[in-house]
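Example 3.
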Amino acid sequence: MFAALLRRDLLLAWRSRADVLVSLTFFIIVACLFPFGVGSDKELLIRIGPGVLWVAALLSVLLSLNRLFAQDYADGTLEQWLLSDTPAPLWVAAKILAHWISTGLPLVLISPLLAVLYELPAEWLPTLAVSLLLGTPILALLGAVGAALTLGVRAGGVLIALLVLPLFVPVLIFGAGAVQAVADGTGATPWLLLLGAGDLAALSLAPLACAAALRLAVESG
Amino acid sequence: MMLEARNLACMKGERLLFRNLNLHIQAGGLLRVLGPNGAGKTSLLRILCSLAVPEAGQVLWNGQDIHARAGREIFAPAVLYLGHAPMINGLLTPLENLQLLCAADAQPADADICAAALRAMGLEAALALPCRVLSAGQRRRVALARLHASRAACGQNALARPLWVLDEPFTALDVASVEQLAQTITAHCAAGGMAIFVSHQEAPFGLPAQTLTLGGTA
Protein backbone atom coordinates (compact mmCIF):
# COMPACT_ATOMS: atom_id res chain seq x y z
CA MET A 1 0.00 0.00 0.00
CA PHE A 2 2.84 2.39 0.95
CA ALA A 3 4.65 1.43 -2.24
CA ALA A 4 1.50 1.56 -4.38
CA LEU A 5 0.65 5.08 -3.25
CA LEU A 6 4.24 6.29 -3.53
CA ARG A 7 4.42 4.98 -7.08
CA ARG A 8 1.06 6.50 -7.98
CA ASP A 9 1.95 9.96 -6.61
CA LEU A 10 5.31 9.98 -8.38
CA LEU A 11 3.56 8.96 -11.59
CA LEU A 12 1.08 11.80 -11.11
CA ALA A 13 3.91 14.24 -10.44
CA TRP A 14 5.56 13.10 -13.65
CA ARG A 15 2.36 13.48 -15.67
CA SER A 16 1.70 16.94 -14.26
CA ARG A 17 5.32 18.01 -14.38
CA ALA A 18 4.36 21.53 -15.42
CA ASP A 19 2.97 22.03 -11.90
CA VAL A 20 6.15 20.65 -10.39
CA LEU A 21 8.28 22.92 -12.54
CA VAL A 22 6.33 25.95 -11.31
CA SER A 23 7.67 25.68 -7.77
CA LEU A 24 11.19 24.97 -8.99
CA THR A 25 11.07 27.96 -11.36
CA PHE A 26 9.73 30.08 -8.51
CA PHE A 27 12.78 29.10 -6.43
CA ILE A 28 15.14 30.05 -9.25
CA ILE A 29 13.43 33.39 -9.95
CA VAL A 30 13.27 34.48 -6.31
CA ALA A 31 16.95 33.60 -5.89
CA CYS A 32 17.76 35.59 -9.03
CA LEU A 33 15.80 38.67 -7.91
CA PHE A 34 17.94 39.49 -4.88
CA PRO A 35 21.15 40.36 -6.73
CA PHE A 36 19.09 42.80 -8.85
CA GLY A 37 17.67 44.35 -5.70
CA VAL A 38 20.77 44.73 -3.59
CA GLY A 39 23.31 45.42 -6.32
CA SER A 40 26.46 43.60 -7.30
CA ASP A 41 28.52 44.20 -4.17
CA LYS A 42 30.37 40.89 -4.03
CA GLU A 43 30.93 40.79 -0.28
CA LEU A 44 27.31 41.61 0.46
CA LEU A 45 26.10 38.88 -1.89
CA ILE A 46 28.37 36.31 -0.26
CA ARG A 47 27.08 37.34 3.15
CA ILE A 48 23.38 37.18 2.33
CA GLY A 49 23.61 34.28 -0.17
CA PRO A 50 22.97 31.30 2.11
CA GLY A 51 20.10 33.03 3.92
CA VAL A 52 18.45 34.16 0.69
CA LEU A 53 18.69 30.71 -0.89
CA TRP A 54 17.17 29.19 2.22
CA VAL A 55 14.28 31.67 2.31
CA ALA A 56 13.65 31.08 -1.41
CA ALA A 57 13.58 27.31 -0.84
CA LEU A 58 11.18 27.75 2.05
CA LEU A 59 8.79 29.90 0.01
CA SER A 60 8.96 27.46 -2.88
CA VAL A 61 7.99 24.57 -0.58
CA LEU A 62 5.15 26.70 0.77
CA LEU A 63 3.90 27.38 -2.74
CA SER A 64 3.60 23.68 -3.54
CA LEU A 65 1.86 22.66 -0.31
CA ASN A 66 -1.76 23.30 -1.26
CA ARG A 67 -1.39 20.74 -4.07
CA LEU A 68 -0.54 17.97 -1.62
CA PHE A 69 -4.06 16.83 -0.66
CA ALA A 70 -6.38 19.15 -2.61
CA GLN A 71 -6.93 16.92 -5.65
CA ASP A 72 -7.46 13.74 -3.64
CA TYR A 73 -9.86 15.59 -1.36
CA ALA A 74 -11.86 16.98 -4.26
CA ASP A 75 -12.24 13.70 -6.17
CA GLY A 76 -13.11 11.59 -3.14
CA THR A 77 -9.95 9.48 -3.17
CA LEU A 78 -9.05 10.68 0.32
CA GLU A 79 -12.25 9.16 1.74
CA GLN A 80 -11.32 5.84 0.20
CA TRP A 81 -7.89 5.90 1.83
CA LEU A 82 -9.45 6.74 5.18
CA LEU A 83 -11.79 3.76 4.81
CA SER A 84 -8.96 1.41 3.86
CA ASP A 85 -7.51 -0.84 6.54
CA THR A 86 -4.01 0.62 6.09
CA PRO A 87 -3.20 2.89 9.05
CA ALA A 88 -3.65 6.50 7.91
CA PRO A 89 -0.21 7.79 9.09
CA LEU A 90 1.46 5.22 6.85
CA TRP A 91 -0.13 6.30 3.58
CA VAL A 92 0.12 9.94 4.63
CA ALA A 93 3.87 9.40 4.98
CA ALA A 94 3.95 7.90 1.48
CA LYS A 95 2.20 10.95 0.05
CA ILE A 96 4.58 13.34 1.84
CA LEU A 97 7.61 11.38 0.67
CA ALA A 98 6.40 11.49 -2.94
CA HIS A 99 5.73 15.20 -2.58
CA TRP A 100 9.22 15.81 -1.22
CA ILE A 101 10.84 13.79 -4.02
CA SER A 102 9.00 15.81 -6.64
CA THR A 103 9.36 19.27 -5.08
CA GLY A 104 12.06 19.28 -2.38
CA LEU A 105 14.71 17.14 -4.03
CA PRO A 106 14.94 19.28 -7.21
CA LEU A 107 15.61 22.32 -4.99
CA VAL A 108 18.49 20.51 -3.31
CA LEU A 109 19.95 19.49 -6.65
CA ILE A 110 19.78 22.93 -8.24
CA SER A 111 20.95 24.92 -5.19
CA PRO A 112 24.72 24.65 -5.96
CA LEU A 113 24.06 26.23 -9.37
CA LEU A 114 22.23 29.15 -7.81
CA ALA A 115 24.96 29.53 -5.22
CA VAL A 116 27.29 30.41 -8.09
CA LEU A 117 25.06 33.43 -8.68
CA TYR A 118 26.08 34.72 -5.26
CA GLU A 119 29.70 33.76 -5.85
CA LEU A 120 29.66 31.53 -2.77
CA PRO A 121 33.03 29.76 -2.35
CA ALA A 122 32.99 26.21 -3.71
CA GLU A 123 33.79 24.68 -0.31
CA TRP A 124 30.46 26.00 1.09
CA LEU A 125 28.39 24.30 -1.57
CA PRO A 126 28.32 20.76 -0.11
CA THR A 127 27.17 22.16 3.24
CA LEU A 128 24.46 24.22 1.55
CA ALA A 129 23.20 21.19 -0.37
CA VAL A 130 23.32 18.90 2.67
CA SER A 131 21.53 21.47 4.85
CA LEU A 132 18.77 21.68 2.24
CA LEU A 133 18.72 17.89 1.90
CA LEU A 134 18.12 17.59 5.65
CA GLY A 135 15.94 20.68 5.99
CA THR A 136 13.43 20.38 3.15
CA PRO A 137 11.93 17.09 4.46
CA ILE A 138 11.13 18.91 7.74
CA LEU A 139 9.47 21.67 5.73
CA ALA A 140 7.44 19.12 3.75
CA LEU A 141 6.35 17.24 6.89
CA LEU A 142 5.35 20.34 8.87
CA GLY A 143 3.78 21.86 5.78
CA ALA A 144 1.70 18.73 5.19
CA VAL A 145 0.08 19.22 8.60
CA GLY A 146 -0.80 22.78 7.59
CA ALA A 147 -2.14 21.58 4.23
CA ALA A 148 -4.30 18.96 5.95
CA LEU A 149 -5.63 21.46 8.49
CA THR A 150 -6.65 23.97 5.82
CA LEU A 151 -8.26 21.41 3.51
CA GLY A 152 -11.68 22.56 2.33
CA VAL A 153 -11.23 25.97 3.93
CA ARG A 154 -11.77 29.05 1.79
CA ALA A 155 -8.56 31.01 1.17
CA GLY A 156 -6.73 27.96 2.48
CA GLY A 157 -3.57 28.91 0.60
CA VAL A 158 -3.03 32.06 2.65
CA LEU A 159 -3.98 30.28 5.84
CA ILE A 160 -1.31 27.62 5.24
CA ALA A 161 1.31 30.36 5.08
CA LEU A 162 0.16 31.86 8.38
CA LEU A 163 0.08 28.45 10.03
CA VAL A 164 3.38 26.98 8.91
CA LEU A 165 5.76 29.88 8.30
CA PRO A 166 6.34 30.45 12.04
CA LEU A 167 7.07 26.72 12.37
CA PHE A 168 9.60 26.96 9.55
CA VAL A 169 11.71 29.52 11.45
CA PRO A 170 13.89 27.04 13.40
CA VAL A 171 14.60 25.10 10.20
CA LEU A 172 15.66 28.33 8.52
CA ILE A 173 17.93 29.25 11.43
CA PHE A 174 19.63 25.85 11.53
CA GLY A 175 19.88 25.59 7.74
CA ALA A 176 21.31 29.02 7.03
CA GLY A 177 23.34 28.74 10.25
CA ALA A 178 25.07 25.61 8.97
CA VAL A 179 26.41 27.42 5.91
CA GLN A 180 27.34 30.46 8.00
CA ALA A 181 29.25 28.20 10.37
CA VAL A 182 31.37 26.93 7.48
CA ALA A 183 32.02 30.54 6.50
CA ASP A 184 33.09 31.35 10.05
CA GLY A 185 35.24 28.23 10.16
CA THR A 186 33.46 26.82 13.24
CA GLY A 187 32.19 23.66 11.50
CA ALA A 188 28.67 22.87 10.36
CA THR A 189 28.27 19.49 12.08
CA PRO A 190 26.22 20.65 15.11
CA TRP A 191 23.79 22.54 12.87
CA LEU A 192 23.37 19.59 10.54
CA LEU A 193 22.85 17.28 13.50
CA LEU A 194 20.12 19.59 14.77
CA LEU A 195 18.46 19.44 11.35
CA GLY A 196 18.71 15.64 11.44
CA ALA A 197 17.07 15.61 14.86
CA GLY A 198 14.35 17.84 13.45
CA ASP A 199 13.83 15.31 10.65
CA LEU A 200 13.33 12.47 13.10
CA ALA A 201 10.97 14.48 15.31
CA ALA A 202 8.89 15.68 12.36
CA LEU A 203 8.83 12.19 10.81
CA SER A 204 7.52 10.64 14.00
CA LEU A 205 4.88 13.26 14.78
CA ALA A 206 3.75 14.95 11.55
CA PRO A 207 2.11 11.90 9.85
CA LEU A 208 0.02 11.28 12.98
CA ALA A 209 -1.12 14.91 13.18
CA CYS A 210 -1.72 14.97 9.45
CA ALA A 211 -3.88 11.84 9.54
CA ALA A 212 -5.99 13.27 12.36
CA ALA A 213 -6.44 16.56 10.48
CA LEU A 214 -7.44 14.74 7.27
CA ARG A 215 -10.04 12.70 9.15
CA LEU A 216 -11.46 15.94 10.57
CA ALA A 217 -11.59 17.53 7.12
CA VAL A 218 -13.43 14.54 5.63
CA GLU A 219 -15.84 14.22 8.56
CA SER A 220 -16.85 17.85 8.36
CA GLY A 221 -16.85 17.96 4.55
CA MET B 1 -23.34 -10.00 10.24
CA MET B 2 -25.57 -7.03 10.80
CA LEU B 3 -25.58 -3.25 10.53
CA GLU B 4 -27.87 -1.41 12.89
CA ALA B 5 -28.50 2.30 13.40
CA ARG B 6 -30.13 3.52 16.60
CA ASN B 7 -31.77 6.92 17.06
CA LEU B 8 -29.52 8.65 14.55
CA ALA B 9 -29.72 12.41 14.22
CA CYS B 10 -27.84 14.52 11.72
CA MET B 11 -27.30 18.28 11.65
CA LYS B 12 -25.96 20.11 8.65
CA GLY B 13 -24.98 23.60 9.77
CA GLU B 14 -27.99 24.85 11.73
CA ARG B 15 -30.46 22.54 10.02
CA LEU B 16 -31.73 19.27 11.44
CA LEU B 17 -31.83 16.76 8.57
CA PHE B 18 -33.31 13.82 10.46
CA ARG B 19 -33.58 12.43 13.95
CA ASN B 20 -34.68 9.25 15.70
CA LEU B 21 -33.73 7.30 12.63
CA ASN B 22 -33.48 3.57 13.12
CA LEU B 23 -32.51 0.99 10.59
CA HIS B 24 -31.39 -2.56 10.51
CA ILE B 25 -29.93 -4.64 7.72
CA GLN B 26 -28.73 -8.23 7.74
CA ALA B 27 -26.77 -10.53 5.48
CA GLY B 28 -28.52 -10.72 2.12
CA GLY B 29 -30.38 -7.48 2.79
CA LEU B 30 -30.87 -4.72 0.28
CA LEU B 31 -31.88 -1.25 1.45
CA ARG B 32 -32.90 1.60 -0.80
CA VAL B 33 -32.80 5.12 0.64
CA LEU B 34 -35.28 7.53 -0.92
CA GLY B 35 -36.06 11.17 -0.43
CA PRO B 36 -36.04 14.57 -2.09
CA ASN B 37 -32.79 16.48 -2.72
CA GLY B 38 -31.42 17.87 0.51
CA ALA B 39 -33.21 15.33 2.71
CA GLY B 40 -29.92 13.99 4.05
CA LYS B 41 -29.45 10.80 2.03
CA THR B 42 -25.76 11.35 1.38
CA SER B 43 -25.23 12.49 4.98
CA LEU B 44 -26.88 9.29 6.19
CA LEU B 45 -24.70 7.12 3.96
CA ARG B 46 -21.55 8.90 5.13
CA ILE B 47 -22.56 8.31 8.73
CA LEU B 48 -23.31 4.64 8.02
CA CYS B 49 -19.85 4.05 6.60
CA SER B 50 -18.03 5.94 9.42
CA LEU B 51 -16.92 8.90 7.28
CA ALA B 52 -19.10 11.31 9.27
CA VAL B 53 -20.09 11.43 12.91
CA PRO B 54 -23.81 11.62 13.77
CA GLU B 55 -25.14 14.39 15.99
CA ALA B 56 -26.74 11.75 18.18
CA GLY B 57 -27.25 8.00 18.12
CA GLN B 58 -25.06 5.06 17.22
CA VAL B 59 -24.24 2.85 14.28
CA LEU B 60 -23.46 -0.71 15.28
CA TRP B 61 -21.67 -3.27 13.13
CA ASN B 62 -22.15 -6.71 14.69
CA GLY B 63 -22.90 -4.89 17.93
CA GLN B 64 -19.77 -2.67 17.89
CA ASP B 65 -20.01 1.11 17.60
CA ILE B 66 -18.31 1.98 14.29
CA HIS B 67 -17.50 5.52 15.39
CA ALA B 68 -15.39 4.26 18.30
CA ARG B 69 -11.79 3.34 17.58
CA ALA B 70 -12.12 -0.39 18.26
CA GLY B 71 -15.30 -0.68 16.22
CA ARG B 72 -13.84 1.25 13.30
CA GLU B 73 -10.93 -1.14 13.01
CA ILE B 74 -13.30 -4.08 12.64
CA PHE B 75 -15.71 -2.17 10.41
CA ALA B 76 -13.29 -0.53 7.94
CA PRO B 77 -12.28 -3.80 6.19
CA ALA B 78 -15.96 -4.77 5.85
CA VAL B 79 -17.31 -1.75 3.99
CA LEU B 80 -17.02 -0.63 0.40
CA TYR B 81 -18.22 2.93 -0.12
CA LEU B 82 -18.90 4.51 -3.50
CA GLY B 83 -19.68 8.18 -3.02
CA HIS B 84 -20.90 11.02 -5.18
CA ALA B 85 -17.34 12.06 -5.97
CA PRO B 86 -15.91 10.11 -8.90
CA MET B 87 -12.83 8.79 -7.00
CA ILE B 88 -11.03 8.96 -10.31
CA ASN B 89 -7.87 10.91 -11.03
CA GLY B 90 -8.02 12.41 -14.52
CA LEU B 91 -4.31 11.93 -15.17
CA LEU B 92 -4.36 8.18 -14.56
CA THR B 93 -5.78 5.53 -16.86
CA PRO B 94 -8.86 3.53 -15.81
CA LEU B 95 -6.60 0.56 -15.05
CA GLU B 96 -4.27 2.60 -12.82
CA ASN B 97 -7.22 4.17 -11.03
CA LEU B 98 -8.90 0.83 -10.43
CA GLN B 99 -5.72 -0.88 -9.23
CA LEU B 100 -5.25 1.83 -6.66
CA LEU B 101 -8.84 1.59 -5.43
CA CYS B 102 -8.34 -2.16 -5.08
CA ALA B 103 -5.14 -1.52 -3.15
CA ALA B 104 -7.20 0.66 -0.80
CA ASP B 105 -9.48 -2.35 -0.37
CA ALA B 106 -6.41 -4.40 0.56
CA GLN B 107 -7.16 -6.75 -2.31
CA PRO B 108 -4.47 -8.18 -4.49
CA ALA B 109 -4.50 -5.46 -7.15
CA ASP B 110 -3.93 -7.95 -9.92
CA ALA B 111 -3.75 -6.21 -13.30
CA ASP B 112 -5.64 -9.07 -14.98
CA ILE B 113 -8.54 -8.96 -12.56
CA CYS B 114 -8.77 -5.18 -12.87
CA ALA B 115 -8.60 -5.28 -16.67
CA ALA B 116 -11.27 -7.99 -16.76
CA ALA B 117 -13.51 -5.91 -14.48
CA LEU B 118 -13.09 -2.88 -16.74
CA ARG B 119 -13.87 -4.98 -19.83
CA ALA B 120 -16.96 -6.28 -18.08
CA MET B 121 -18.04 -2.66 -17.66
CA GLY B 122 -17.59 -2.12 -21.39
CA LEU B 123 -14.46 -0.01 -21.13
CA GLU B 124 -12.29 -2.17 -23.38
CA ALA B 125 -11.50 0.71 -25.74
CA ALA B 126 -10.68 3.17 -22.96
CA LEU B 127 -8.22 1.02 -20.99
CA ALA B 128 -5.12 3.04 -21.86
CA LEU B 129 -6.64 6.53 -22.06
CA PRO B 130 -6.24 9.09 -19.29
CA CYS B 131 -9.56 9.36 -17.42
CA ARG B 132 -9.88 13.08 -18.06
CA VAL B 133 -10.90 12.36 -21.67
CA LEU B 134 -13.67 9.94 -20.61
CA SER B 135 -17.32 10.94 -20.35
CA ALA B 136 -19.10 11.21 -16.98
CA GLY B 137 -20.80 7.86 -17.56
CA GLN B 138 -17.54 6.15 -18.48
CA ARG B 139 -15.84 7.52 -15.37
CA ARG B 140 -18.73 6.28 -13.30
CA ARG B 141 -18.23 2.85 -14.83
CA VAL B 142 -14.54 2.90 -13.89
CA ALA B 143 -15.56 3.47 -10.28
CA LEU B 144 -18.23 0.77 -10.49
CA ALA B 145 -15.74 -1.72 -11.95
CA ARG B 146 -14.42 -1.85 -8.40
CA LEU B 147 -17.53 -3.81 -7.40
CA HIS B 148 -16.71 -6.36 -10.11
CA ALA B 149 -13.08 -6.49 -9.09
CA SER B 150 -14.09 -6.88 -5.47
CA ARG B 151 -16.26 -9.90 -6.34
CA ALA B 152 -13.73 -11.40 -8.73
CA ALA B 153 -10.71 -10.99 -6.44
CA CYS B 154 -12.21 -12.90 -3.54
CA GLY B 155 -13.67 -15.65 -5.74
CA GLN B 156 -15.92 -17.94 -3.72
CA ASN B 157 -15.39 -15.89 -0.62
CA ALA B 158 -17.67 -13.11 -1.81
CA LEU B 159 -17.85 -11.55 1.60
CA ALA B 160 -14.42 -9.94 1.74
CA ARG B 161 -16.21 -6.58 1.74
CA PRO B 162 -19.74 -7.62 2.71
CA LEU B 163 -21.31 -4.17 3.11
CA TRP B 164 -21.70 -2.05 0.00
CA VAL B 165 -22.74 1.55 0.55
CA LEU B 166 -23.56 3.12 -2.82
CA ASP B 167 -24.53 6.75 -3.29
CA GLU B 168 -26.60 7.11 -6.48
CA PRO B 169 -24.72 4.36 -8.32
CA PHE B 170 -27.08 4.51 -11.32
CA THR B 171 -26.45 8.18 -12.12
CA ALA B 172 -25.05 8.85 -15.60
CA LEU B 173 -25.29 5.18 -16.66
CA ASP B 174 -26.95 3.96 -19.84
CA VAL B 175 -29.82 1.46 -19.75
CA ALA B 176 -27.68 -1.64 -20.30
CA SER B 177 -25.22 -0.60 -17.58
CA VAL B 178 -28.05 0.01 -15.10
CA GLU B 179 -29.29 -3.53 -15.73
CA GLN B 180 -25.82 -4.95 -15.35
CA LEU B 181 -25.11 -3.07 -12.12
CA ALA B 182 -28.42 -4.22 -10.66
CA GLN B 183 -27.39 -7.81 -11.46
CA THR B 184 -24.03 -7.31 -9.76
CA ILE B 185 -25.68 -5.96 -6.62
CA THR B 186 -28.26 -8.75 -6.64
CA ALA B 187 -25.51 -11.36 -6.97
CA HIS B 188 -23.59 -9.77 -4.11
CA CYS B 189 -26.62 -9.90 -1.83
CA ALA B 190 -27.50 -13.43 -2.92
CA ALA B 191 -23.99 -14.48 -1.87
CA GLY B 192 -24.70 -13.21 1.62
CA GLY B 193 -23.51 -9.62 1.28
CA MET B 194 -25.61 -6.56 1.96
CA ALA B 195 -26.08 -3.28 0.16
CA ILE B 196 -27.43 0.15 1.00
CA PHE B 197 -28.00 2.48 -1.92
CA VAL B 198 -29.54 5.79 -2.86
CA SER B 199 -31.39 5.94 -6.15
CA HIS B 200 -34.03 8.17 -7.63
CA GLN B 201 -34.88 5.71 -10.35
CA GLU B 202 -36.37 2.23 -10.23
CA ALA B 203 -33.80 -0.40 -11.02
CA PRO B 204 -34.49 -3.97 -12.05
CA PHE B 205 -33.42 -5.88 -8.96
CA GLY B 206 -33.81 -9.60 -8.64
CA LEU B 207 -34.26 -9.21 -4.90
CA PRO B 208 -36.90 -7.35 -2.93
CA ALA B 209 -35.46 -4.15 -1.47
CA GLN B 210 -36.50 -2.54 1.79
CA THR B 211 -36.99 1.19 1.42
CA LEU B 212 -36.26 4.00 3.82
CA THR B 213 -37.75 7.38 3.01
CA LEU B 214 -36.15 10.49 4.41
CA GLY B 215 -37.48 13.98 4.93
CA GLY B 216 -40.98 14.92 3.85
CA THR B 217 -40.28 18.48 4.89
CA ALA B 218 -37.28 19.40 2.78
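Chain A has one domain: 2-220. DSSP finds nine helices and no strands in chain A.
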